[in-house]
Amino acid sequence: MGFDIPEPYVWDESFRVFYETLDTEHKGLFQGIFACIGENSQGNLDTLRDKVEKHFSTEEGMMKKNNYADYDSHKKLHAEFVGKLAALSAPLDGPSVYYSKNWLVNHIKGIDFKYKGKLG
C-alpha cells in the first residue's frame, strides 16, 4: 500500500511541503531519479546520491533547529535510503529504479508531510 508513482516521473504540486528550499530539493531528487532512468549511468547515480545527501542534511538541519519531535525516526529512514543507494551501481536494474521512485514518493507524502507547518 502506498501512494501512486507519477508517470512521467516528475514532481508536481501534490508533493509540496510548503518550504521553498525543501520543495526545490525534492524537485531535484525527482530529476535525479528520472536522469538515472533516462541515461542509466554511474555519473547520474553519483549525482543522485549527492543530491540525496545534501537534501537530507538540509531537511534534518531544519528539523533539528525547530526541535521536530520525529527527528530521530526520520533521520533513521534517511540513513536507510542512503545505505540502499550506496549499495547500487549502474546500470540500475528495474527493481532498483522502482524502489527509488516508490521510496521517494511515499517518503514525501507519508513521512515528510508530517512536518508541514512545524519547521518554522
TrEMBL record:
Binding site for Fe cation 1: 26, 55, 59, 112
Domain of life: Eukaryota
Stored InterPro entries: Haemerythrin, Haemerythrin_Fe_BS, Hemerythrin, Hemerythrin-like, Hemerythrin-like_sf, Hemerythrin_metal-bd
Residues at which Fe cation 2 binds: 59, 74, 78, 107, 112
Keywords: Iron, Metal-binding
Pfam families recorded: Hemerythrin
Domain Hemerythrin-like: 18-118
PROSITE patterns listed in its UniProt record: HEMERYTHRINS (PS00550)
Any one GO MF annotation of this record: iron ion binding
Family affiliation: Belongs to the hemerythrin family.
Protein known as: Hemerythrin
